[in-house]
Amino acid sequence: MRRGRGLLRRVAGRARGPGPAHRPHHRAGPVTGEPLTGPLTEPLTWGQRAIWAAIERTAPDDRYFNFGRVLAVPRSIRQLGVADVRRAVGLLTDRHQALRTTIGPGPVQIVGESAEPVVGIVHAARGEEAAVAAELQARMESSAFDYRDERPLRVGVVICEGTVGHVVLVFCHMAADGLGAEIAVRDLRLLLLLRGTAGGPPPTQPAELARRQNSAEGLRLARAADEYWEREFSRIPVSMFPAQVAEPSGPPIWRALLTSRAAAMAAQRLAVLHGATTGAVLLAASAAMVGRVTGQELCAMLPIVGNRFRADTRNAVTTLSQEGLFVCDVTAERFDDLLRAARPAALRAYRHAYHDPAGRAAATARASAARGAEVQPYCCFNDMRFAEPPPRDWEPGEIHAALGSSTLTWPISQDRLNCRFCVHITGEGAGLGISVTADTRYLPKAGMESWLRGLEDLLVEAAARAAARKVHAG
């Protein structure tokens, strides 16, 4: 059977609403219990403002920010029909206002009424369901959202032999970040399993969060973050990639992806030996490689921080992730010295990542004016893994042997991006996916590949040296 046959509704395009397929359902509001009788308009949250600025700088290539999840329906409830999924998704959007929030002029967030979700349908033969779901996800992610007129959640189902086997969700980044999407998928699974309840009290909604961020406590947190950003911006390089060094051939933005089991094993060994996480190891190593490639002794990176350390943000479906500012001296010759310097620098970055983008912009402007040049690192780090595997003290010989299985590919290219150099970390089976998305005018493709191979070598060599010191100390 041909994959993807029978798409009944357009799921990747800009579905307008509410229309005939979006008839309002006046269900009880998830916060107050009162019926929602009209849209609710509130300011954007800090996280929404941060991603909105990135979207505006990337458009019309802002489909870059779309992302999806696939929920494989448990076999115990494999008799689900499309109506069951539609009902569960409707209850999901009742519970989480972000999933029915559009963006109005200002910009502001406009929380819409409950509405019947549009569901795209494809059919698959047995054994092909997962592949068809992946194809459907890619298709649904391939076009930018209409932020004003389209609900920020696209839904598709894969039907096999008359029942729903997979549910595909594609999120607008204005509605959720990666951790928020995981909460939404968890709740949808419960709604399907328990036939109508996700359990637990409703979480904080973005409109409520925006009000808290504008409170006295929110303003106090924002001022502390502003002071940190301005202080650090007074001493870092004005940019990690300050000058154009090449002309692009074709689209200027490219992504290189290194899939490496050796890097995963080395990072785990270093984490065990230093009592750290693999995320901390990879952040420190990435900063060291940026310093090596650029010749800068002080590295400034913008790690993406989840900002879910507060009770009012922990279980919210919204976009809370914001950039932190990680500033670290990367001149240390030994990796343990580098990691020792990176730890407090990372804590400072995480503490002040929960910030008001307007205050950060003002602090940036003041620092730039004082230095006579725009201060902007243009250097990002995003560990997109939701959990780390149990750390293991691999033998150096095992790590070195795994180098032969590493692969490097070039999965995407496009015309615009809001940054010049972005590192993404993902889990790839037993290995790591380490990708660099870069503006090749500032770091050519050969430099991107050299950076990735150099990072892998740095980790493997550091793990071997740490092992040698451990044997010598013993």
Give the tags.
Chloramphenicol Acetyltransferase; Non-ribosomal peptide synthetase condensation domain protein; single chain; eight-stranded mixed β-sheet; 15 strands; 474 residues; 2 domains
CATH class of the largest domain: Alpha Beta
Please describe the biggest sheet, giving its number of strands, its sense, and whether it closes into a barrel. Answer: 8 strands, mixed
- What are the low-pLDDT stretches, counting only 5+ consecutive residues below 50? 1-37
Task: Compute the average pLDDT.
Answer: 89
* Count of helical stretches: 12
Number of strands: 15
Protein described:
The chain starts with 39 loop residues before the first strand and ends with a helix. The model is unreliable at 1-37 (pLDDT under 50). The protein has two domains: 20-211, Chloramphenicol Acetyltransferase (2-Layer Sandwich), CATH 3.30.559.10; 237-473, 2-Layer Sandwich (Chloramphenicol Acetyltransferase), CATH 3.30.559. With 474 residues, it is α+β, with helices and mostly antiparallel strands. It has helices at 46-58, 82-95, 129-141, 178-193, 206-213, 216-233, 261-274, 278-294, 335-351, 357-371, 396-402, 445-473, and strands at 40-43, 67-72, 101-104, 108-111, 119-123, 153-160, 163-171, 253-260, 298-305, 322-323, 326-329, 380-383, 407-414, 421-428, 431-439. The strands form three sheets. Strands 8, 9, 10, 11, 12, 13, 14 and 15 form an eight-stranded mixed β-sheet that branches. A four-stranded mixed β-sheet has the order 2-7-6-5, with helices on both faces.
